[in-house]
Every structure is written in structure tokens, then in C-alpha cells.
Amino acid sequence: MDPTLYKNLFIAFFRSGILGYGGGPSSIPLIHKEVVEIYHWMSDEEFNDLIALSNTLPGPIVTKLAGYIGYRIAGVVGLLIALFASVVPTVILMIVLISMLTSFRDSPRVEGMTRAVTPVVGVMLFTIAYSFIKHSGKGIGWNKTLILGLVSVMAFLWLKLHPALLIGALILYALLPQKKGEKEA
User: Fold this and answer.
1) Taking a C-beta distance cutoff of 8 angstroms, is the pair 105, 77 a contact?
2) Model-level pTM greater than 0.70?
3) DSSP reduced 3-state for 60
4) Exposed e or buried b for every residue in 26-51, given b needs 16+ CB within 10 A?
5) Which residues contact 72 (CB under 8 A, 6 or more apart)?
6) Tens digit of each residue's pLDDT, the chain (185 residues)
7) What is the DSSP letter of 184?
8) Which of these, 49, 65, 117, 177, has the minimum number of CB atoms within 10 Å of its CB?
């Protein structure tokens, strides 16, 4: 394998790992930027399919994405490099920030910093949600996408159903046979 590929794989996942403030879902747009737009390792559609699949499996999404993409790009060595690059920034930042924040936890600046980052994380989550909705609309049609989306929001917010039940119900729905003329999921 080309050493440049290993280096690029490390850089892509290290960069998204170090900048992914707010956890896995907020890192998804950063990984998308690296994998789809900068390095062109996957198409937009392939990445969206990978996100959907990753969300159905247990565990942190960033490590699932890193493992799959690393393996797909450069085999087992790529998998290890991508996992290492995506986890190490979190470990380093956790150690540094926890030691700093414990000594400054009552500081208004630290509190202000946390509040200032929150809208940015919200925008990043909205971006990935918009991408899911757009991908779904193209796949199963806009009417089904809107109906399934609204029913899911109502079931989650008003009926207080656990997200796992919603995911399971939607997977079962996707497995139902489609009528002729309908787009398949």
C-alpha cells in the first residue's frame, strides 16, 4: 500500500476527531467532509448509506465509521490507523481538558465557552439531519419521508417511545413488501 494513503487516512480521522466537539453525531459532518469531499473515498450516497447502517449498530458511531472506512480504503492496517486517529484526539483532549476544567470549573469564561459552542454543535447536527432527510426523500419518496418523519417525531416526543423501538419499527416497515410502482427503501 501507498504510505501516502495511510498518512491521509490518519490526517482525515485525526482532524475530524480533534475538531468533533460534542460527540459522535457532531463529528459526522467533519468525517463526511474528509471522506467524500476532500479525499473522494466514497460518494455522498455511499456515505449516507454507511451512516444509516452505523446508526443501527451499537456503539459509538465515529469508531464504526473509522473502522469501516479505514478497512475499505486500506484493509486491516487502514482500519487500525483510522480507529487510532479517531480515538487518540479524544483521549488527549479529555486528559488535558479535565485537568484544566477542574481547576477553572467555576470560571465564567469556561461556562461562556461551553454556551458558545452549543449552537455550533446544533448546526452540525441539523446539517446531518438535513442530509438524511434529503437522501430518504430521494430513496423512498418525499411523501413517505415526511409521514415517517412526522410519525417518528410524535412517537418520540409525545408518546415518549424509546429510540430503539422507533428504529426497530422503521426497520420492520422497510422490510415490508412494496406495492408495484412504489419506490423501494
Assistant:
1) no
2) no
3) coil
4) bbbbbbbebbbeebebbeeeebbebb
5) 41, 42, 78
6) 688 999 999 999 998 888 876 667 778 889 999 999 999 999 998 998 898 888 888 888 888 999 999 999 999 999 999 999 988 887 887 788 778 777 777 778 877 877 887 888 788 788 888 888 888 888 888 998 899 889 999 998 999 888 888 888 888 887 888 776 555 44
7) P
8) 177
